[in-house]
Every structure is written in C-alpha cells, then in structure tokens.
Amino acid sequence: MTTQTKTIDGTKAQSALLAALFVAVLGGAMLFLAGHAQSATLHDAAHDVRHATGFPCH
Amino acid sequence: MIQRMLASGLIAGIAAGLIAALLHFAFVQSTILLGEEYETGALVHFGASGSQEAMQGHADTEAAAVAEAAPEADGHSHDAAGETTSLERNALSVLFMVILYVSYGLILVAGFGIADAFGRKIGPIEGLLWGLAGFASFQLAPAMGLAPELPGTLAVDLDLRQLWWWSTVACTGTGIGLLAYGRHWAAFALAGALLALPHGIGAPMHEGFYGTAPPELGALFAARVLGAALVVWACLGWFAGAVWARQSLWA
Lengths: 58, 251
Hints:
heterodimer; A: 2 helices; B: mainly alpha; 7 helices; about 75% helix
C-alpha cells in the first residue's frame, strides 16, 4: 500500500488509510448488528428489514 | 478525513435509508405479510395440499390481496404470534432501514477515503458508480446464491449462510475494485477469479425445496427486493459522492 502512495505525502496518506479503516470497521459493526446479530430482540426488531434486504434471517 | 467520511456516510445513509423505507412499504412489505400468512397456515397454497383446498386457498389469497390494499384494515386481524402492533413494527423497519444504509454508507465512504489517498477524486458520478458496485457486492451477488428469503422459506444452518454471505460480499467488492482501478492484466485475472469464486464453491442450500408460499410470490418478492435495493444504492452512492465533493471545497 505504501509503495503506491509515493506521489503524495506518505504520512498524510497513511493517516487517511487509517481513518478509512476505522470508518469501514464502524460500518461493518453496524452492518453486523442490523443484519446478522442473532439476539432475539435485535432479530425481531430488524426482522422485516432483514428479509427485505436479502440477509440470511432465520 | 474522519469527519469528512462520517459526515458523507451519515447524511447519504440517512437519506438513502428513508428512500429505502418508502420503497419497502410501496413494494416489499405487502409480499412479506402475504408470505407470513402462508408461513402460519392462515393461507394454503393449492399446490402444496389436497385439491379440495385449491379454491379455498385461492379465494383467501385474493381476500388478503384486497385487505392489503387498505393497510389500516389489515394488521390487527390475525397477528397472534407477535404482540407488536403494525405501527411499532413499521417504525422499527424505518429505523433499521436507516441504520442499515448508514452502515452501507460508512463502508462506501471508507472506500472513497482509500481512493482519495491514492489521488482519485470522487464526485456524484463516481459515487453513483460506487453505489452500483455496492449493490452488486452487497445485494446482487449474495442473492445469486442465497435468494432473498420470503418468510416461510426453509434454509440450511444460519451460520453457514452468513459466512457465505460475508465471503461473497468481500470477494465481489474486491473483484469490482480491481476491475475498476487495476492497471495490469494480473489484476483483471484476479478480479475474475474473485468474482467467480463464491459461486464456484456454491451457497449452502438444502437438496429439496420446502417453501410454503407459491413460487410466484417468492419470485415477486425477490425481484422487488433487488429492484428497490438497486434504486436505493444508486441514491446512496450519488448522495455520498455529492456530499464528499462538496466537503472538499470547504476543506
């Protein structure tokens, strides 16, 4: 990854990639809660949305 | 950078989630409710039982279809299983649609951030293309193995399906990224292999079919789910790209 960022400031690119990683993990965690977590409360609350957005539900 | 990503992801995600909820109630929810009637046995598909029930099942279907046309007349009729009212149920669907598309939005703008770090500029048009790629990765490719499930569909172990779902999303997303931004034939070859891999392995599924609802209803449901998702992902990408580009003017 760092070899391809040589044209721009290395540390700036690195912090941007770290920020992107953080946001991606945050989004992934929310996606897991909304679409995949199997706690009964979450499952029931998100039931229709899970079916309607193609997640494996039951 | 984090603020820019969070702002773009949140704004675009909330807007797309509200559009998703609108399309859900316009196209998808009625098929879910009808599917549940077959799941609970309130309706019986004539192909699945004796012929004397054929007319009965058919008549009930039409009655249900009519009842759906007047939502306020439905809902409180035969909802023995769930204690939640249809208002609560629908409010939760709006809430989770927004949460879901905010999470998709955050993942999308994380991609913008990486592209930006490599010197790629993202605007509304690029955002739209990213949104279409997101639709292919998160909806279309998984649906080709695990079709959207109408309530009442019987499927194999949930953990296996979720694992296949995540793997398919990761392979497809990486594959499309390589196709779009790769510069060498090896990248394109790897992209093709990644796109094909989950389908070569195959999604976990039963040998037979055990659904209770008519196939026509399942097909309608799946088509509407994918159609609505396409529109919402296109909006999500466009919004995220627009907010992203505007913030670069401020910065």
